[in-house]
Amino acid sequence: MDLKRLRYFREIAKQGQITKAAKSLHMAQPPLSQQLRIFEEELNVMLFERKGRRLLLTEAGEALYQRSEHLLDELDELEKEIRETGLGLRGTLRLGAVKSCFAYLPERMKKFHKRYPNVSFSLRQGDSYLISELVKAREVEIGLIRMPLNLDNFDYYHLVKEPYVVVYPSSFQQFAAPSIDLTELATTPLLLLHRISGTGQYEQIIEAFTNKGLHPQILCECPDVSMLLSLVSSGLGVTIVPKSTLLAFQPPHTSVTAIRQTQLETESAFIWLRDRYLSKAALRFIESCIQNNESP
Fold it and tell me: 91 in a domain, yes or no?
């Protein structure tokens, strides 16, 4: 069944006249009459009967009209959805994020949702290595990772740099000061983030100790920052994390202090596959992040 002829039939049924239907469809009357005749021949039924100047639906025509209304409305909606999806106005945006820099996401997602309310989100989490692998496998389109990371396969957008801070159990009164030195931390049980694979924050922090001739006491390594912070909350030890992490995850019974006399800094980045197709939703999300590069 030809969809164009089905649309012509529906308009003729609505208008009750070939002349009015042709005007509504912005076409001449003879071609429309010809298309109706071809349609009836294809179906081998009469769809209309004349009553004066009006065309009335036959029983077969009425059955076709009732079904065609629903069918064509669905097709119109499908066409609109496909068009809007192509424009980034609809669909699902698949994101991956490292928990330690998750604080950069909520406000950006909120602004994006306000502008594109028909785009939903699918969110995955993991350490920077895992998120980069998810991007490579195209399981997510955009990853929010913590540097450093090998970016050979990616395009990327760096966010602002931020300092590391010390998170300690509130019961550790010896740390209750505006800042603390790495020398004081070297003799304290440390709980540090460590990626599943590759180098990252762990190596960066260890290097800072090594540069001062210090050998820290590493009690626990873990790729999940929320687990580490829970351990700190229990009083097991102290951790060092990016400052923005605590905007999303700061458990009870913990306190925070700065690290003095060190240049320990970190930065986050949005990454996506280089020279590969990105959905319009992903492109618009990246554009909005670049336009609003601000701290969480």
Answer: no
